[in-house]
Amino acid sequence: MDEGLRSELSKQGIFTTTLEELYNWGRKNSVWPLGFGLACCAIEMIAASMARWDLARFGAEVFRPSPRQADLMIVAGTVTKKMAPQVVRLYNQMPEPKYVIAMGACAISGGPFKQGYNVLKGIDRYIPVDVHIPGCPPRPEALLHAFMKLQQLIDEQPLTGCNRPRHLRADAPTEFTVPEYGPHDLEPPKNPEVWRPPVIHPGEA
Amino acid sequence: MESLEQLQARVAQAVPAARLEIVPNDSPAGQPSLLLNKDAALAVAQFLRDDPRLRLDYVSNVTGVDWLDTVITRKVRSRQVIEGIEREIEHSFEEKKPGCLEVVYHLYSMELKHGPLVLRLRTGNRSDDVHLPSLTPVWRGAEFQEREVFDLYGIIFDGHPDLRRILMWDEFQDYPMRKDYAEPDDFEYEPTAHGEVLERARRHVGTPEAPHP
């Protein structure tokens, strides 16, 4: 709908909207995170949900104990290789539409533990991540910022056309390969459908 | 607490099978330790715990150490008569020191408020003779720490009630804290690569999954 016409109508006391806007407005203000934490970032996540930072202002105060009732997975902390299959399985058990925030350096890339033998070098190797927050750990404000980014992302999702989100496409995957424990590493070590290593330019760094 | 020499003598009296060796420590900590032979380790541990002057009833820490095979070069000078002239000749010997796996126990006494006493046990080698007696029957607190040493170094503790991997998954076959452990090559990408990590990331450049820039 034309923006000018819309503002003209609103001046006359006529409120117009679209189904898409209403639908996304409802979705973005009731994103329920899954209540699980992996390391110290979880403490900041808990702080963000309590009175001082009050994630409830964004409609996300209900941390669900079950993945079946959750819309958002906040991967808060170091994902060890031993824990990675369980994280992916939890993600698979969440109903669509579902979103992921990778919180902190460890969830993004392994962080300070990247060179450890038992640390996954980023959860985006196995599941699609919508928002990455850097920080070690990120402050609650950073989590709120990520949350507002996610709301913006949900708000901009078109319901029709080729750019419509995954949950409105029958052919899009809703579950991703759960890695298995191998003799030396996880099998597979990454899911190429989700993640491909970016091209590095040695010398530019 | 009595000195290690006194302790050594007393243990030798109480446990005839024990052969103890005092391992000096040249580091700033300067804390010498007792090396036990593995056959008498359990009896010595029992003595250390129950002796009224020691009462070492608490294991605060159990650690593993991996000693690789090393070659030590020694130089010996000797005087020899060559062609009628006496000369000083230097010989160098290469001495091979076989590697082993070692486990270190730090003991304290809660009752008498003294410690630590550092115990060491060594395996025969790093490959097939990696059995050591478990001290968990004497100190229950060593259970999880011995499991961790088993998990990361591959030392097999005989007599341990529940010897399983504790940090890595059960299907895992390597021992990550051994010095010859080869990590899986999963450094395809490093945002600020440098040094060894850059080399490892570079190995992946040009492969189908990371095409050459």
What does this structure look like?
The complex is a heterodimer of chains A (205) and B (213). By secondary structure, chain A is an alpha/beta fold. Chain A has a domain at 32-157: Rossmann fold. Chain A has six helices and five strands, in the order H-H-H-E-H-E-H-E-H-E-E. A three-stranded parallel beta sheet of chain A has the order 1-2-3. Chain A has a two-stranded antiparallel ribbon with strand order 4-5. In chain A, helix 5 links the parallel strand 2 and strand 3. In chain A, helix 2 (19-28) packs antiparallel against helix 6 and helix 3 (41-49) packs across helix 6. Chain A is globular and about 70 Å long. The model of chain A has no long low-confidence stretch (mean pLDDT 89). Chain B is an alpha/beta fold and 213 residues long. Chain B folds into two domains: 4-68 and 99-182, NADH:ubiquinone oxidoreductase Nqo5 subunit (Beta Polymerase, domain 2, 2-Layer Sandwich); 185-213, no CATH class. Chain B has helices spanning 4-14, 41-50, 143-153, 195-202, and strands at residues 21-23, 33-36, 58-67, 70-82, 85-97, 100-109, 114-122, 131-133, 156-158. Chain B has a five-stranded mixed beta sheet. A two-stranded antiparallel ribbon of chain B has the order 4-5. In chain B, strands 8-9 form a two-stranded parallel ribbon. The longest helix of chain B has 11 residues, at 4-14. Chain B is flat, with a radius of gyration of 24 Å. The chains are: A alpha/beta (205), B alpha/beta (213). Chains A and B meet through loops of A and helix 4 of B.
List keywords for this structure.
heterodimer; A: 205 residues; alpha/beta; Rossmann fold; 3-stranded parallel beta sheet; two-stranded antiparallel sheet; 6 helices; globular; B: 213 residues; Beta Polymerase, domain 2; 2 domains; 5-stranded mixed beta sheet; two-stranded antiparallel ribbon; 4 helices; flat
